[in-house]
Write a structure and sequence with these properties.
The complex is a heterodimer. Chain A is α/β, with parallel strands linked by helices. Chain A contains 6 helices and 7 strands; from the N terminus they run H-H-E-E-E-H-E-H-E-H-E-E-H. The chains are: A alpha/beta, B mainly alpha. Chains A and B meet through helix 1, helix 2 and helix 5 of A and helix 3, helix 4, helix 5 and helix 6 of B.
């Protein structure tokens, strides 16, 4: 019985709700929903940009600020010939590679065959023995072979700091004037050599 | 009770922001002729980031390069270099990464201005949203009365 009484009242409520809907629709409530989507959109695009950005580059590989700058000045002892002092001028004349290595660095052992092959192909390869001990370094070269034209002794890591080095191995490509053209961080693999470094060296030899 | 909890949370968050980076893991026995130089040295190694580690300052890192760089900071400070000169020395060699507070230039402006832009955007939409939800009903008095009546009749019929 109560149901029958309630029915007309509910119909009237429906009518009123309809009329409210009509009133509101002239007052653009739909726009309200759309503007409220903007923050969500901004947030999602920010997430997308950051997600892509974080994957784009290995955060461990810092860009070098030394590209296009002359190799920092230095005058340091050579590993095998303590009487000999080498300087940045010794790099000039040919396109060359300068490799930062140490006996405490496992990746240096891994990249050594590749470096040996590069040196054998005729590219001058210079070593910086970084934060190391002379005797250990000599033993290491005896064991794995010595592809370096000469080795600079940087037992205090001073030249390393001037080069922005933060680990080993790191490899620099210099042009004929001893200007830094490229820096490779980490092990030089055959892939790195064939795809990046070799074409760059050929181009640099061609340019000047 | 709620208020106390809120204040505590706010204090802790503020504490994280201001004192969070004073972690000194490495202790080098460097000599300083006076305490001002030691304070400046400590300030600098706090401010510079270790290039090998992704998020540790020179003061907190045991990495070899961090040790070398602390030694350089010590040397430069003793040589009479100003804080700016030390930071410039590091910046020339290691670039933006070494500074925890990146310089304002092309490529970093978004980093500096982005949060401000986001804050303004949030304020804009916050105000807009609160205004919209507080909007007074746009029914006429007549319609209001009608709804009240209907609701009342609804209640009384439900009571029975």
């Amino acid at each position: 019985m109560t149901d029958q009484k309630a029915v007309p009242a509910q119909d009237a409520v429906h009518d009123t709700v309809d009329s409210i809907d009509r009133l509101d629709s002239t007052d653009k409530p739909r726009n309200l929903n759309k503007t409220l989507l903007v923050p969500l959109f901004v947030f999602l695009s920010l997430v997308a940009i950051l997600a892509i950005g974080f994957q784009l580059e290995d955060p461990h590989k810092l860009p070098s600020v030394l590209i296009d700058r002359p190799f920092p000045e230095f005058a340091m002892r050579e590993l095998h010939d303590a009487q000999r002092t080498v300087t940045q001028n010794d790099f000039k004349g040919e396109v060359s590679l300068v490799n930062v290595w140490a006996t405490w660095c496992p990746n240096c052992v891994m990249e050594h065959p590749q470096l040996t092959a590069i040196a054998a192909s005729g590219v001058p390869l210079y070593g910086i023995n970084y934060n190391d001990v002379d005797e250990k370094a000599k033993g290491w070269l005896q064991r794995y072979g010595d592809p370096f034209t000469f080795n600079i002794v940087d037992d205090q890591g001073k030249l390393g700091i001037d080069l922005g080095v933060y680990g080993a191995p790191e490899t620099f490509v210099l042009d004929k004037n001893g200007v830094i053209q490229y820096k490779h961080i980490g092990e030089v693999t055959q892939r790195d050599w064939l795809i990046t470094i070799k074409p760059l060296i050929e181009q640099l030899e061609h340019d000047s | 009770m709620h208020r106390a909890g809120f204040l505590l949370t706010a204090a802790l968050m503020f504490g994280c922001l201001t004192f969070g980076h004073h972690a000194n893991a490495a202790i080098d026995a460097y000599a300083f002729p006076d305490e001002t130089l030691r304070d400046r040295y400590n300030g600098l190694i706090d401010e510079l980031r270790c290039p090998q580690c992704l998020n540790t300052n020179l003061a907190g890192s045991d990495a070899m390069v961090a040790k070398d760089l602390r030694r350089e900071v010590h040397r430069l400070v003793l040589e009479g270099k100003s804080d700016d000169e030390v930071l410039e020395f590091m910046y020339e060699r290691y670039g933006d990464f070494i500074l925890y507070e990146p310089r304002f230039k092309r490529g970093t402006w978004l980093l500096w201005l982005g949060p401000i832009a986001l804050l303004l955007l949030a304020l804009f939409f916050g105000i807009r949203f609160s205004r919209l939800s507080n909007q007074v009903s746009n029914l006429t008095e007549d319609e209001d009365r009608k709804i009240d009546q209907l609701l009342k009749s609804q209640e009384s019929s439900a009571d029975k």
